[in-house]
Sequence to fold (318 residues):
Amino acid sequence: MTKDDGARTKSRARTGAEPDSEAREVEITWAVMAALFQFRIATAEQLRRLTAPDAGIEKMRSRLRRLREEGLAEELVLPQSGRARGWFLTEHGTRVAGAFPELADIPAPRTPGDKGAFKYTLWHQLAVVRTHLTFLADARRRGDSYGPFDFIPEIAHRFAEGREGTVRPDGLLYYSRTGADGARVTNLAFVEVDRGTMGGPQLAAKLNAYARYWATAPLPAGVRSGTIEAQDGGVPLWKRRYVRFPRLLFVLTGTGQAGFAHRADDLELIARTRYVAKMLRTVPAMVAKLEDLEEEGPGADVWWPIADLEAGPGPWWN
Fold:
């Protein structure tokens, strides 16, 4: 954006005038780059639905080609996809987008060193974008407050030493809606997406890791364990970030109905263990099929409570 472009945009903001097509184009291009920084890779159709759902796909493809010509983005053909293409930022594009103040807290994406190998490791991230889009479309239909950048990917939460002492959800979701009593409610959720590439026990181990994070409460400095001062324990580590522990949403795809049922059973089994069961008394945890979210919307009765699958499905915010 030039200095004159910025001045014109600020002038319209002060007068309340509608931005012209040029200013709107700058805004959408910014959003496209921000989305690629945030989600690492996306198709043209996903980017259209994220940033300009009322425009045609050719407009988005033209915008992406322009970013490629400017050395800010690249594309690759996705394997077994009918020649569909995934778009990602170049190193130069990552540096440019990384300077956006709105992305200051977002981990910078890793640029592919080997594009040939990269295209076989990106399906998980595309499934994450698919999941986010279901919440975005549902919010737009309902008039809820949830935008393209209210899903923050891969924020690390460290609670102990070693690799197993960290939880890194696929996304942290901020969703505001009006409750039945007319009050505004903001729901936070850790989102985990699995395409059937992770074994059932591995998936269930993630639930156990969240329980460990939830239960970790370091003692204040100078207080030793076993003393009277230590009897009440410390403040839970998660309270340094959240007023309330985010709910847990597991989104499964790629396994069919039988595979989904087996994985849900694995999650319910570990939910009965002492530490996880204690967490689930106050932290809702649910599992759903991605295909159901896309067909019916995440606000429908498609989420199964992990603590008690026999209770039947409901909306994710129950």
